[in-house]
Amino acid sequence: VATFKITVAYEGTNYVGWQRQRTGVSIQGLIEDVLRPLDGREVVVTGAGRTDAGVHALGQVASFALNRTIEPDALGRALNGALPPDVRIVDVERTAEGFHARFAATSKTYRYRFCDAEVVSPFERHFVWHVGGPLDVAAMDGAAGVLQGRHDFAAFQAAGGATATTERTVTYSRVTRVDDGEIRYDISGDGFLRHMVRAVAGTLVEIGRGRWSRERMREALESRDRRAAGPTAPPGGLFLVRVEYRDL
Amino acid sequence: VATFKITVAYEGTNYVGWQRQRTGVSIQGLIEDVLRPLDGREVVVTGAGRTDAGVHALGQVASFALNRTIEPDALGRALNGALPPDVRIVDVERTAEGFHARFAATSKTYRYRFCDAEVVSPFERHFVWHVGGPLDVAAMDGAAGVLQGRHDFAAFQAAGGATATTERTVTYSRVTRVDDGEIRYDISGDGFLRHMVRAVAGTLVEIGRGRWSRERMREALESRDRRAAGPTAPPGGLFLVRVEYRDL
User: Measured between alpha carbons, how far is A209 from A185 in angstroms, rounded to an integer?
Assistant: First the structure.
């Protein structure tokens, strides 16, 4: 048995999300469908993060085991030759047996992109949340910083997100304006609850629009009540940027 | 009668091109379809450049006249409210009566984007030509520079491009590597023949791959024979960047 670690970039616009579902085409399902005939059996591909429908990835990481012996480069070419062009394998490594892309991850980084220009570029329409602007980036950044550290993030968890604990450690949480109409929120942490980044992004926009004071972020966090935070931001602005591991 | 000058950005992927055609949806047709009920009569929209199917624009310019009086900002909002999100009006100005976006243009700038990385980013798949690489950018840039000046560009004109003269003045023609896998060709001039930029781009790739020496560009130019130049590059890599006018 050979275990592989792959890094995957995808535009999520046309998919039901990372995870295989009965209701439509998933990234996981596409990759498993290529690996099945290659290995002559069902192959289960485990992703580090379960991105939702419409969410994108620059560096999703996934793991799987094959019975067949195959060079990593050849495996990458075989996958890219069969996958649609909106899903690309950008790296393949052979790794230690038993490696699990989700359990072994020590840190994940997400980016949420906002556009507060009057008109969204046609080239960005699937990749930003177009909000009535202009947004107050200093207020948003101040509020985002409150999330750094170890906290109970229950206020930012979607209904149906059942995890043993809602405590997570956020190591980086900052908002920056990168361009005339483009604002980025970057967040890194050891784990994320369901819809957590999008609930934080929705809260940041309320603050950036001046509807809520920047103190509202801390109040929402401390409430542990989803109703105290902002709306869930739309999926198109969200990117899974990278997943980090201890040296394997 | 009020004459307007609009600047339009569009992703050309899903269109038959700028120009209205019976065979499918065009950008010109979309805009005319919004203006017709607004003005209560047929409105003819004239674009500065006729981009082909799949070609994009960051700053196409078009002109038209309306009988109705309307503020430019309101006209922009009306257009963007009715147009699909892959076509955006980024500027509207009222201009001198008789202004004609094509005849009045003094310079146009196009960009052609190549990717010579092994894997194309899923976010770039409609916006680059993925070529077997790596490309020799110094050779391409040397060849591109040959086109600067006033020349007969008949060698780079598609069959069916019937113009009075095939002489044009190119004021800028350079190739640069902007990123690990991304190369840009930028060309400005007073006018362009049908498929001219794509024929030049196809020639540049032959030179960048080392199949042809960089002298081949001059030989092709001097031949005035389409067969001496390279293949027509695919449309997705091409952008109409901007159109310039004398002070109106």
Answer: 15
Give me B241's structure tokens.
Answer: 């960047």
- How far apart CA A86 and CA A54 sit, in angstroms, is 12
Following DSSP, what letter does each residue of B167-226 receive, concatenated? Answer: EEEEEEEEEEE-SSSEEEEEEEES---TTHHHHHHHHHHHHHTTSS-TTHHHHHHHHT-G
ipTM, 2 dp:
0.91
Does the CB of A238 have a partner CB in chain B at under 8 Å? no
DSSP character for A129? E
What share of residues in chain A are helix, strand, coil (percent, to 5)? 25, 30, 40
Per-residue pLDDT of chain B (248 residues; tens, 9 = 90+): 999 999 999 999 999 999 999 999 999 999 999 999 999 999 999 999 999 999 999 999 999 999 998 999 999 999 999 999 999 999 999 999 999 999 999 999 999 999 999 999 999 999 999 997 799 999 999 999 999 999 999 999 987 656 789 999 999 999 999 988 999 999 999 999 999 999 999 999 999 999 999 999 999 999 999 999 999 999 999 999 999 998 75
* Cβ contacts of B125 on chain A, cutoff 8 Å: 85-86
Give the E-state strand segments of chain B in sequence order: 2-10, 46-47, 56-66, 87-95, 105-115, 129-130, 149-152, 167-177, 182-189, 238-245
Nearest-neighbour CA in chain B from A32: distance (Å): 19
- The span from the CA of B144 to the CA of B171, in Å, is 11
Coil, strand or helix at A80: helix
- A49 forms bridges with which residues in the sheet? none
Burial class of residue B63 (count of CB atoms within 10 Å of its CB; 0-12, 13-18, 19+): buried
φ, ψ of residue B81 in degrees (nearest 5)? -70, -25
By C-alpha distance, which of B134, B139, B88 is closest to B114? B134
Partner-chain contact A120 B85, CB within 8 Å:
yes
B123 CB neighbours in chain A (<8 A) are: 9, 11, 56, 127
β-bridge partners, B91: B7
CB-based contacts of A247: which residues, under 8 Å, 6+ apart?
Answer: none
Whether the CB of A79 is below 8 Å from some CB of chain B: the reply is no
Q: For residue B63, what are its two tokens?
A: 């002109």
> Please, what is the angle between helix B137-145 and helix B216-223, to 10°?
30
pTM (2 decimals)? 0.93
Give the residues across from A169 on adjacent strands. A150
- In the block, tokens 């980025």 appear at A184
The greatest distance separating any two alpha carbons of chain A, rounded to the nearest whole angstrom, comes to 58
Dist. CA A52–CA A47, nearest whole Å? 12
